[in-house]
């Protein structure tokens, strides 16, 4: 059984670069180049949705030079790839507080969302300026402001960045770290977790295939006793 929605915590770019004797930023560049082959592969497999954790609210505390490099890398990537994304039927959506990004970057992100809005082959979400706790508090505050007195799961989920999307079936984290780091904490309540020691730039389609095979062998019980 294949997952509908796979989410990735792309970790280990810095360590990958260090092992190659390269500056950290080259690790981010290699990590960026890795996205495309994984998206193509998922599309071929008919996976509906991918979500990549590209920049967390906490990442703003990195040295300014690294933060700016990541901003340029991300906006260059979408400028370069947009045509092909449209041709391949990709729908790109950004999850997070984009107001934290400089306006030239935001313009590229807006344009990417606009031009790919009709894509129906695969949806690719990029979490930018994203943090689950902030997302959850923003949802609570928006409901309070509306004067809502009782909330159910459907109403609450409709106030998250992921409104209308299926929860991730599988969350993959690279580089040997075993934590969620403020990523999809609400949405991932029943996600299968997969950890690999590979650094993100080395997480290729073969590694993805292995993760999918492992996912296929898991029995998802959602707190019950039989597989649903
Ligand atoms: C974690 O590795 C990685 C990040 C904080 C950035 C991830 C971003 C990208 C791969 C670029 C995404 C690009 C697009 C176009 C969406 P780390 O730097 O924390 O690695 P380390 O733990 O080894 O230092």
Can you offer a commentary on this structure?
The chain is of the alpha/beta class. The chain has a single domain (5-131, 169-215), classed as 3-Layer(aba) Sandwich (Undecaprenyl pyrophosphate synthetase). It contains 7 helices and 6 strands, in the order βααβαβαβααββα. It has helices at residues 13-19, 24-44, 64-87, 103-116, 132-145, 153-157, 205-217, and strands at residues 5-9, 49-56, 90-95, 122-130, 170-173, 192-195. A 6-stranded parallel β-sheet has the order 3-4-2-1-5-6, sandwiched between helices. α2 packs parallel to α3 and α3 (64-87) packs parallel to α4. The longest helix is centred in the first third of the chain and has 24 residues, at 64-87. The chain is globular, with a radius of gyration of 18 Å. The chain binds farnesyl diphosphate. The site of farnesyl diphosphate has 18 residues, from α1, α2, β2 and α3.
